Amino acid sequence: MLRFLQWLIRQDAFLRAMKPAFGRFHPFLPAHRNDPHATWRALREESPIYRSRMMGTFVCTRYEDVFNVLRSPDFTTDRSGVAGVKLVAWLNRDRPE
């Protein structure tokens, strides 16, 4: 499964086609991998707390926001309800003998 995901990330045409689903923050595009600082800078300026529907999470780009989120009991790391996480769990399930 991991090799398949690594291969898929290297397929630029597939990643460009997925851009609308990811929105402005697409961490798997070659432009982001080559210069992630430009992406983070743009996010900090335009949308410091960005909601990524594809990843099922919020992306915090400012130190103060990250600090507050990590200290607050109101936030969780449980992403078991996210579609992508469910798919990976299903693909990695134990199959009957």
Question: What does this entry look like structurally?
Answer:
The chain is mostly helical and 97 residues long. Helix content is 54%, strand content 8%. It contains seven helices and two strands, in the order αααααββαα. The chain has helices at 2-9, 12-17, 19-22, 30-34, 36-46, 63-71, 83-91; strands spanning 49-52, 57-60. The protein has a two-stranded antiparallel ribbon with strand order 1-2. The longest helix has 11 residues, at 36-46. It is flat, with a radius of gyration of 16 Å.
Class from helix and strand fractions: mainly alpha
The spatial strand order of the largest sheet comes to 1-2
The average pLDDT value, as a whole number, equals 77
- The proportion of residues forming helix, as a percent range, comes to 40-55%
Strand content: 5-15%
Radius of gyration using CA atoms only: 16 Å
Q: Major sheet, described briefly?
A: 2 strands, antiparallel
How many β strands by DSSP?
A: 2
- The rounded distance between the terminal residues' Cα atoms is 19 Å
**Series of H and E elements:** HHHHHEEHH
Number of helices: 7
**C-alpha geometry:** flat
Low-confidence spans: none
SSE blueprint:
Layout: H1 2-9, H2 12-17, H3 19-22, H4 30-34, H5 36-46, E1 49-52, E2 57-60, H6 63-71, H7 83-91
Antiparallel strand pairs: 1-2
